[in-house]
Structure formats: structure tokens, C-alpha cells
Write a structure and sequence with these properties.
386 residues, alpha/beta, five-stranded mixed β-sheet, 16 strands, elongated, binds ligand AOF, binds zinc ion
Length: 386
């Protein structure tokens, strides 16, 4: 077994925490002595032990002189738990192999430095790319304070998200729809526009029954339902929509534009509707206007302040266009279904005015292509946006 094998195991362990640790990172750790794994662990749930301490807790023998492989630089601050650097030194671990650097300003190189100062051999940036790929959301959120936005849509092979009459159930197959619920589960927010609510009356919750994908507790910190976020600049949402009727069970935010202070220039009809929606359990937030709709950058700052680190954007064409133009989109996930709707009027994933010159296109970098049942999933990160 090589350093690579042990780090690969740590990466594998880290992945088990996905969807449970937000807004904290997923982290895995393996302790090895004399070529034998003597301890391993991962960050299981937000607020729980860090991966290093989980690995230490699993030890059945002393780790004196052992090596620790950890996907993220050990922390050195007192947060919800005491510093992992202390636990590592107490165990007399003498070599620490680190994957990602921790951009958290409370750590940021100091964890590695403290270990080195104490005489531990520290290897940094080991399989860093692979380890960094575990935590794009954490890295983005800890450095910007705003959520990592993933724009997701499903389209036909001719690029339509609905037929000319607006029918869209279903474009993709069952397997793809289950994958979408997995994506929702791993995000702290799911965002859609009022157009989607009016057209489809969606629930925007997580339904994973029968997929065998539920691997942990379904409630509590780290395993909460994603917040549903509706961009509804003029507060048009029907009070009998499924979103409004279920807001007591599933946290819901409606973002509209307008003056922030209750009772100010807002008209009374809007004010009364806001009160009724809030009584139904919805949080209504008034944000600045940006070109006629809600200022999405301001919305992202608001969501970031609430601790929301990630948003799955399931907008229609208008919201997708606004999000791209506001520069808030970090990833794009596209399902392509093996059918053709045709029709110049049928809607496409990104509306708005579009660009004129080819060079003005929103840039994407292809990361992954996979087959999901009979559909194809294309996964991109954005480039030069935001
Ligand atoms: C984790 N899990 O396994 C590691 C983390 O809020 P706290 O006190 O739990 O500290 C969170 C910070 O600790 C986090 O932002 C990251 O910088 C560092 N490492 N966090 O949640 C872990 N190793
Ligand atoms: Zn720690």
C-alpha cells in the first residue's frame, strides 16, 4: 500500500459525509502504522467530530509514531470542537499527509505550521486536486460568504425544456429524476422562479423513496430539508400553490423586490399578502430591484448570511438568464433526453435577450459526461462568470 492508496481511502470516507456536513466541508482521515490501517473516520454530520478526531476515536491501539492521511488541512482553532492539531499531537502521530489546504481564515496554513513546529513531518498538497474536488462548495462559501450555485435543467435533444404548449412532464427518465433528488439533497437551497411555480406548481422538496439513497438520519442538523427559494419579484405566488400550502413542513423563502421596511412605500395589498404568507410559515424578503427583477447578488448575500452554502437553481429560462448575467452560477448540470419537441415557440433553458457575438457566450468547462438510464448528464463549471 502506498501514500496514494491511503489518501484514496480517506477521499472515499470523506464522500460518505456528503449532504450531512454543510456548510462545513466533507473530510476523511486514515491513520496508518507499519503499513497497517489502525484507524479511520470521516466528518459525519455538521457539529460532530472532525474527521481526524473520528479516526482517533476509532483506534484500538496506540498511534504513537503513526502517519495520518487527511483530505483537508487539520484545524487549529476552537470552534464547535477543540483544534484537531492538539489531538494529533496528543496521540504522538509523527507524520501528517494533507490533501487540500484549508482556506478558512481561522486555519489557512496555520494548522500545518503548528504541526511542523511541534516536530511532525508534514506533507502538503498531496493529491490536492482530487481532494479539492470534494469541497467546491465549502471553498466557495468560506471565501465569499455566498452560496455555490448549481444551475440544473433537463432538455430534449433539440434543446427544449417544454413543448410549445408548456408541457414538461416528463422530459427525462425516472433514473435522471432520482439523480436530481440526490442533487437537491446535497444542497442547502433549491431555487426556482415564479414562472415555474405558476406553470408546474412544484413541491421542490427531496423525494428519494425507493432509490436506496438515504444513508443516514433524515432530520437534525446537517440533514435538514433544503430551503425552497422562490424568486417572485411582484409577490404573485398563489396562496393555494403547493409551495405555500406546505411551507410549515418545508422551509420556504420568497424573494421579491421592493422597499425593505414594513409599512414604507409598499402598497397595502402587497403588505397584507406578505402577512398572510408569513402566517403560512414563509419568510418573505424584500430586496433591491435589478433591471426589473430581484437583485440576485443581493439575494445570494442574504442566503449566505443565513448559513446557506449551496443552491440548486431549477429556474425556468428567465431566472436562468438572470442568474448567468448576475454572475452567480458556478456549475451547470444538463440532462439531455432522447427526444425532440421542435417548435420555434417551445421554451429553451436560457431566455432573455441572448448575446450577439459568439465571443460573448457564457463560458463553460466540461467536467463530466455520464449516461443516466437513456439520458445523458453533462456537468460543467462556469468560466469567466462572476
Ligand atoms: C469540519 N470537519 O472534519 C474538519 C473541519 O465549526 P467547527 O468548529 O466544526 O469547525 C469547522 C472548520 O474546521 C471548517 O470550516 C474547517 O475550516 C475546519 N475543518 N471542519 O467540519 C472536519 N477537518
Ligand atoms: Zn478539526
Amino acid at each position: 500500500m502506498t501514500d496514494r492508496d491511503y489518501m484514496e481511502r480517506a477521499i472515499c470516507l470523506a464522500k460518505k459525509g456528503r449532504g450531512y456536513t454543510n456548510p462545513n466541508p466533507v473530510v476523511g482521515a486514515v491513520i496508518v502504522r507499519d503499513g497497517k490501517v489502525i484507524g479511520e473516520g470521516y466528518h459525519r454530520i455538521w457539529g460532530g467530530l472532525h474527521a481526524e478526531r473520528e479516526a482517533i476515536a476509532s483506534l484500538r491501539e496506540s498511534a504513537r509514531g503513526a502517519s495520518l492521511y487527511v483530505t483537508l488541512e487539520p484545524c487549529c482553532h476552537y470552534g464547535k470542537t477543540p483544534p484537531c492539531t492538539e489531538a494529533i499531537l496528543e496521540e504522538k502521530i509523527t507524520r501528517v499527509v494533507i490533501g487540500s489546504r484549508d482556506p478558512n481564515p481561522k486555519v489557512s496554513g496555520r494548522g500545518a505550521e503548528i504541526l511542523r513546529q511541534a516536530g511532525v513531518e508534514v506533507v502538503e498538497d498531496f493529491m490536492r486536486e482530487e481532494c479539492d474536488r470534494l469541497n467546491p462548495v465549502f471553498f466557495h462559501y468560506i471565501t465569499t460568504g455566498t452560496p455555490y450555485v448549481i444551475m440544473k435543467y433537463a432538455m430534449t435533444a433539440d434543446g427544449k425544456i417544454a413543448t410549445k404548449t408548456g408541457a414538461s412532464k416528463w422530459i427525462t427518465g425516472e433514473k435522471s429524476r432520482a439523480v436530481v433528488h440526490g442533487m437537491r439533497r446535497n444542497c442547502m437551497g433549491i431555487m426556482a422562479g415564479i414562472g415555474t411555480v405558476l406553470a408546474d406548481d412544484p413541491m421542490l422538496n427531496v423525494r428519494l423513496e425507493g432509490t436506496g439513497d438515504i444513508s443516514g438520519p433524515s432530520e437534525g442538523p446537517g440533514r435538514r430539508d433544503p430551503v425552497r427559494i422562490i424568486c417572485d419579484s411582484r409577490l404573485r405566488i398563489p396562496e393555494d400553490s403547493r409551495i405555500c400550502r406546505t411551507a410549515k413542513e418545508y422551509p420556504t423563502i420568497i424573494a421579491c423586490k421592493g422597499p425593505g421596511e414594513a409599512g414604507s412605500a409598499r402598497d397595502t395589498a402587497v403588505e397584507e399578502k406578505r402577512r398572510r404568507l408569513e402566517a403560512a410559515g414563509i419568510r418573505v424578503v424584500f430586496l433591491p430591484d435589478h433591471g426589473g427583477s430581484v437583485d440576485l447578488k443581493a439575494l445570494m448575500r442574504y442566503l449566505g448570511d443565513l448559513g446557506i452554502d449551496s443552491v440548486l437553481l431549477e429556474g425556468g429560462g428567465e431566472l436562468n438568464d438572470s442568474a448567468l448575467r448576475a454572475g452567480i452560477v458556478r456549475e451547470v448540470k444538463v440532462f439531455v433526453a432522447p427526444k425532440i419537441f421542435g417548435g420555434a415557440e417551445a421554451r429553451t433553458p436560457v431566455a432573455g435577450l441572448g448575446v450577439e457575438a459568439v465571443e460573448e457566450a457564457a463560458g463553460l468547462k466540461l467536467q463530466e459526461v455520464s449516461r443516466v438510464g437513456d439520458d445523458i448528464l453533462l456537468e460543467y463549471v462556469t468560466q469567466g462568470i462572476g
